[in-house]
Specification:
The chain is α/β, with parallel strands linked by helices. 44% of the residues lie in helices and 9% in strands. The protein folds into 2 domains: 307 residues, 3-Layer(aba) Sandwich (Rossmann fold), CATH 3.40.50; 32 residues. β7, α8 and β8 form a beta-alpha-beta unit.
Length: 378
Amino acid sequence: MAPRDRFKAVDPESVTIHLELPMLQVVSERGEVDEALEPNLSAAQLLRLYRTMVLARFADERMLKLQLQGRMGTFPLCTGHEAAVCGAALALRETDWYVGAYRDLGGRLLRGEPLANYLLFWAGYEEGNVSPEAGRTLPTSVIVGSQTLHAVGLAYAMKYRGQDSAVLTVLGDGATSGGDFHEAMNFAGVWQAPVVFHCVNNQWAISLPVHRQTHSRTIAQKAVAYDMPCVRVDGNDALAVYRATLEALERARGGGGPTLIEAVTYRLTMHTSADDPTRYRSEAEVQSWWQREPIARFRAYLENKGIWDDARQALLEAEIRNEVDAAVREFEARTAELPIDGQFDHVFGSSHPRTCEQRDQFLEETRRECADAPADHG
């Protein structure tokens, strides 16, 4: 072989790895249950999971109303993600760490984070990120993918100390296009850190569809490059998500290293309350995913098991409405006690002309909005 022939470009077709990754599913869209895969959860655990999913949905709807009334800032909606995040969070032990992003309300509620804190944070108050009730739960991470680095750092520290714990980090499909994600995956693979990367693939990174941000056929197969296990799971099936996450966490605690889970679901509403999704996706697409939405599917499963019915549903909805109302009252009482311009105090160690100018502008705009606002928000 001539010297130059040894360095010819490799034909990509000769090294392509063809992966067949079946979708893990326990409860189908039609309500059929794969009993061989059905996890061994008590009625109390199942009802806790369902209640948290419903609470997250109600909270999402109420927050949107608050934002439209001017009582809440721009926030990311979570409708459609309930099974993907709640099912994963249910698999955690109290000694495990939960490292989330910004579209995982249900997971945070399941970990014990007060709803009032969540409201406070999305109203612009960093004080809402302080939730000792949530135990080993890191604050909300808004910078896309950055939390994966925090997660592997925690996981490596626990391995170094010989602790019997693992880390679950939740991220979106858009985060897998960022460098932080790949650095975290590489670190986790090299050091066999006890961390589970739980990617909630909701098909859209704001207005960019998943097929425009990666040429990979799946998100899950990205784990192959780092020689770690991967699984695709129906993200609208809470029990499938729970089972996949439980197995990955147990493997991590047992020294088996990291896992990448791709939970395939759909963002049923807007990216944030400032977004108009009708500009980039069709109503037919959205409606097709509403037919598979997670809460109705899980409710049907509970009804088939004989532990749920219409009367229980009505009581639950009334109870949750009262809980959300109480959280809103607490949130608004706490905001009344906090300075509305407090965020400007912590940009630099001392005052700066530019931040002083921005503070004055912010306060003036707030005064004008308050003067124009109706006396009763409804």
